[in-house]
Model the fold of this input.
Amino acid sequence: MNKKLPGYLLEKNRLVGTVTFSVLFALVFLNLYIPFSDTAWFGLGNSQTFLFTAGFAFISILILVLSRTAMYHVGKLCEFTYLGYVLWCILEVMLICAFYTLVTVDVVHSGGGTWPQVFFRALLYGAISLVIPYILTGMYFTIMEKNKTIRLMNSPDVVSDEQPSSKSEGKITLFDNSGALRLSVRTSNLYYIESDDNYIKVWYLNARGELTTYMMRCRLKTVEQSFRDTSLVRCHRKYIVNLDRVKILRKERDAYFLDLDNDSIPPLSVSKTYTDSVLKWFSRENPEKMEAEA
Done:
């Protein structure tokens, strides 16, 4: 539960999809549940009941929208764990159930029980109407992401550094913003990835051993999240570098630079934000490539 939550679950379109599906699922479930409940006061016929129903639905949806908006921004500032995501979802359910209890007991006066009785009953049905769609959307998005990595490597729209082969070991695949597979390259041939506004430039050796660049529409942040815990490490606001292709890490005054094992590539600077992660990787994987400080 303390493992990092996959970044794709916190993408804007995924959060919008989760809220939309959850609202639709809850509406269908509650309409099936009303005839069997002694605390349900929803209705569309009576004008007063309709106003309460519409108001409750609007505020509940607003709670979900504000919650998922906050989740999106928090996810940009810090890493979400599975446990943190689950607790956040539980708090959403509890907040909406508490609001339902407030309306039921103190506004509508349905007579279905005391605050604790109504709240715990609402918590049961609230969990069913919200947690189930949360689980279903999470599974769906996970399957979508896995399907991206299973796509055929010999697609005519895919650029590769070698002739089509049945072997795919030691390769990375890059997808554009639409989810289409655009580049397949062996990790050993990849040098670095450069950000260029809403695009990225991938610098790698092609099948003839020539340094080549390929541009595609994708965010550098997406690449960083996809290849976390590999030799592809963010070293600068503009760069992700393959540290296996670094010849030496050297320090000049208060800044670090990466010299790659290709003389046609200028040294890449390491910004202060990413210095610790780069140093940590070298101290663990290749301490001999760290230039001794004077």
